[in-house]
Structure formats: C-alpha cells, structure tokens
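Shipment paperwork, digital attachment
Item: protein structure file
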Amino acid sequence: MKVILSTLNAKYIHTSLAIRCLKAYSEHDFDIELAEYTIKDPVMNIVSDLFQRRPAVVGFSCYIWNIEETIKVIDILKKVMPEVTIVLGGPEVSYDTGYWMERLVNVDFIVMGEGEETLHHLLKTIEGDQKYHFVYGIAYRKGSETVINPPRPKAELKDLPSPHRFQEDIPHLANRVVYFETSRGCPFNCQFCLSSIEVGVRYYDIERTKADILYLIDQGAKLIKFVDRTFNIKRDYALDMFAFLIENHQGCVFQFEITADIMRPEVLDYLAEHAPPGIFRFEIGVQSTNDPTNELVKRRQNFSKLTRTVTKIKESGKIDQHLDLIAGLPLEDYDTFRKTFNDVFALGPEELQLGFLKMLRGTGLRIDAAKYNYTYMDHAPYEMLSSDVMPFTDIVRLKRLEDVLEKYWNAHRMDHTLNYLMTHSFPSPFDFFQAFGDYWEGQGWQKIGHQLEDLFTRLNAFLLERGTPQMDVIQGLMKLDYFLGHKYKPRKIWWDFTQNKDEWTSLVKKAVERAQDFTDDFAQLGIGERELQKHAMIEVLPFDLEEVVAKRGLAEAEVLDAAGGSGNAASAAFSRDHSSQATLLVVLYQQHTPDGKPRYFTAKLEG
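Attachment content:
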C-alpha cells in the first residue's frame, strides 16, 4: 500500500518534522513517500503532483497557518481520486475533532495527538480487517455517523526512531531549516497556548539526540531550529547541550525557544564566556508585562529576572535575541500594551515580533472567550478582533504599528536613524512606530510595494510632514544607514545628489592623497584612486559627525562598533583636529583586512 505524507509549509526552506517522524516509524511496513509544498503553491500543481504518484492513502499535517489551503487540496484531490483515503493529523485537527469531521466530508480519518503509533496502527487496519474501533486516537466515519475513539497513551520517546536519517534529505540540508526536538511537552500552563494542554515534559535519550545532531552537521546542515517549548527548563541538561553544540557546531547555527526568567546565572555566565558569536539565537516569549494579564492567563513570569537575562545576553554580544509580544490578551488595553511594548523594546532585542492573540482550539482562552467578550475569526488563524478592553479600532491601529516595525526595525535597515528618532524626536518607541504606521496607511502605501530607497524617502516624507526638528542630523544618519546597508557602492541613492563630477573627483583624489592621515590600512590593502572610485561613495553631508555623536550621547567606541569599523581609519572620523566646514563620509565596501573580516572606513576631511 503506497502512502504519501504531505504538508504545506510556510516556505520552501522549512522542513516538516511531523511527517518525518511518521515516516520513520512506519516506513519498514509501508511504501511511504514525503511530499512537501508551500501555502503559496497553486492548488492544481499540488493536486497534479499527488495524482501522478498514485497513492492509496494521503495524510496531511495540519496547522492554523495551512489548514484552509490544505482543505482546498483535499476537496479537489477527492474529486479526481475518489478512491484515495484521506487522513488528517496535527494540532489544528486534534481538538474539536467532531467539528472537522462534520465540515470536511472528504476526510476519512483524523489522527488526534501524537501520530507515530496511531498512524501505524491505522494503516495496518486499513490494509487488514478494517476494525477501526480498536484504533485508539482516531476519528472515523461509520456510515453517516462520526466515531471518536478514546485517546492513545503518550509514546515512550526511547521507542521512536530518528526522523533525521533519510538519504533523500541530505542534498537539501544546507539550504533548509532543520526542525529538531529534544523533548515533548511544556511545564507551563499558559491559557492561550496549545502546549498547556499536554502535562509534563518527556525527553529523548540525550546520546541519541547528540548523535542525530552530529549527523546533520556532518551532512551539511547550516541552521537547526529546536522546537522544544522551553529548552532551558532543566539547568544541567541545557548546560550539557550548550557545551556539546559549542564544541561541535562547525559553523552551524542553532535557534532555541527559552524561558528567560528561569535561566540560571551559571548558564548565562557559561554562554558569555564560551559561546562563539553568532551560533546561537534565542526566541523569548514575553507576551505581556502587565501583571494582572499574566496572572489571569496563568503565565508565570518575573520580568525583573527576564530583564537580567536578556540584558546579560545582549551585553555578551554573542547571541541574537528575538522577543515576542501578544496584543489582545485579557485585561490588556491599548494603554497597557503601549507600556508592554516600551518595556520590552527598552531591552534592545535584535528582533521584536508583535503578534495578535489567536483563539486556538482546545485552549482555555477560547473556552472562556465569552467572559472577556472576545470576537474572533471563525476560521484559522482565529485571530481576535475585539475584546471588552481592546476594540477593533485599537487592533487596526496596532496592525499599522506592526507593519512599520517589521519593515524598519526588524529588517535593521536604519538602526542609527531609528535609535536617534526614538531617543530625541518621539516620546517613546511605541509612539514613533504608531505615528509612522498611521501616516503610512494614510498615504495608501500599504496597498503598493516598495524598493529599498522607498523606505528612506517615505520616512523622510513623514518626518518632514510633522515638522521634525534637526532634520539635517536625521537625514545625515539616514544616508549613513543607507551606505552601511550595501556591500558595494549603491547604484541608486534616495536623495538629490548635488555634487558635480569635478567636485566628486577632487574629493576622491584628496582622500587618496591624505590616506596616510587616516589609516595605515589603506597602504596595506593597496587601495589607490581607482579602488576608491570603485568602492567608495563620497559626499559632503550637512552635519558634523561629532555633533551627532554628542547629541546621541554615545561614546566614540560605541559609534565605531555600530559602524562596523575600528582602528585608525574609523578613529580618524572623530579626530578633534579636523573642525571642517563640512564632514565627508567615505565608506569602502567589501574591503577586507588581512584576517579576512570586512571593515568599513570613515574619514573626515576638511572641506
């Protein structure tokens, strides 16, 4: 019997862990193929591919972000292959299963909860005596009736084979995100999360886990994302795994979900001392800093300890941090969410993700939705639309904020500019993103696309429209950010370039002639006039870089570090003996020092 296990991923770079676990458990008894698509793929392309494979059974792994697209595939597939057996599984259909069996008439079976043992038993029964009432953990049809069997006990993880040893995966490992679990379950009881339903945490054998990770690294994996709900729940386990990954990473990057307020100081000290920069990324769910909200949703969180952890990690400079917020939780109105946003933004995360509460099937908040007067989408992703303290008008405004937050802060296109604006021009980061988001939508820009330079011209237009003071400083920082965002001299700039060719050439020659005043590295690299013309953008900027540094309250070392430069070349940009009428910014892209690391040079010349 030929079985195809399929899922619609968010992107081609993502691998599905769930269907690999199912295949690993059952491939010795059945002819099982994996078929991965994306939610962007045309439905007919997916159906055509499945049709040509001629399976007897097709299983789909279902989540809130792919269920509606999966339903479209199922309905067409059943029309062109009425004989095929359709099986669904995954978190989206494991709850309210009766609803799904009633709504999806083309689905024959639903596997609820963990699927390895249940699917294997179901496939045996389909091929055998078809006595489905003995298969615990499934829902099935008996004539016009839907039968939901009792749940199956949790599997012993030591009995489950590895899902990471398929030969067909090897050619793709370097270009895909590998999802990996070392445990199942969550120790917490957050009422908005499906993980709260499963009690307790179970671990795979640590030696098998390490062997699988080594195998993936040896076969070329570049990014492994651990899906454990709280990777650091056990201190000794976390320390052991961090040490193992540090010793064996070979350039591979590892991403974890951690709970920051329970991270032990000795673990933080170990990471600060031993972790190589860039190989670890932490995702930390803060969600809210409003204590009444956290208490109501049964989310234990000590924000002071969380702050200690995030701050120490950031100060180490070793690990990027992605912090999550959820708008729309109970008792969280617009004003308290403003405080939540500013509280978390002040921690300086490399990425701040603003999500909106989703009323997931099976969660306590969905069951109690009427208590808080929630309205929400009927179909996935079940996003909340309003509550007793958060009207839809506030949700719409926060959506605008989220849009520019993603485009500007999380994309890191204008870090110098944004930090200056949020420190000097707006009451708080929240107020900046909200005001800009409102303006963005007012201009109709959410309906059209954008190029990189559009992001700069649109921010510039917004700041000019509101009469923002010190625009000369702000525009200078915007130009600096634009240069630093390119590896090479940009082909296009977003502002009117007023320098004529003769002036530009003269300044390039001046930079070459006075190279010894700025850095010995120019000579070491053999950079002459032609190289400067090829790699440099020189322009008279309308502000003094020292003045900007002083106004931002930054130390010279901080600015040099932010600009990616160090040593004589960068220091010359801030030397006190060049009180020129104009400041020239010279940025050399893709030049390397003898140690192979990129370096950006800035030099201030007299006008």
